[in-house]
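2024-03-11 09:14:02 DEBUG pipeline.ingest accepted 1 chain
2024-03-11 09:14:02 DEBUG pipeline.ingest length=211
2024-03-11 09:14:03 DEBUG pipeline.predict start
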Amino acid sequence: MADAFRLIETEADLDEGLAHLAAACPVWARAIPEIAPLPLRRRADGFEAIVDAIIGQQISVAAAASIRAKLEAAGMVSELALRTASEDDLRALGLSRPKARYLRGIAEAGLDWQGLRALPDDEVIAQLVALPGIGVWTAEIYLKFALGRADVFAAGDLALQEGARLLYGLEARPGPKALREMAEPWRPWRAVAARGLWAYYRIAKGREGVT
């Protein structure tokens, strides 16, 4: 796979991506000293990564961690366990009814998680969004942080859009189409650019009270 896809696996990979961004755009060159070093944020791929993604949808990080801990303590994070769990079992551990259904449905689907490693980004997204509860954004996050793909860019992410607005001094937040066009020169390191925009957004929010 290393020959087929550019991956982000180490801090050195992030540095290489930042060097590309700095060479591609003077705006990035000025911002990088402020945002570096960027977080690697790699995690193990597979079913449990999607479990975490579903748990974390539309709730706080603290709430997601609490529910994840309860599921783990109850032995409810494997595909086998979730296939055999009842909806009531999962709701008793803090999951909403839709999320309980999503997790059981994903477990029952029996996706070849290891096989995803060998597929191009668009095919991984297609397989993931066919599962219950998984949209394009969740699939793109899985590609970035579980599979380490270096050129995935979630243009629909509002924080990325706002980060781009702040970084480039734009009057309005770019929409997904405009942001994708902005990101073209950042290939093949758009996942590094995404980390950079998130970092810049957090810094600017703290400095200027951005909401």
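2024-03-11 09:14:41 DEBUG pipeline.report The radius of gyration is 18 Å.
2024-03-11 09:14:41 DEBUG pipeline.predict end
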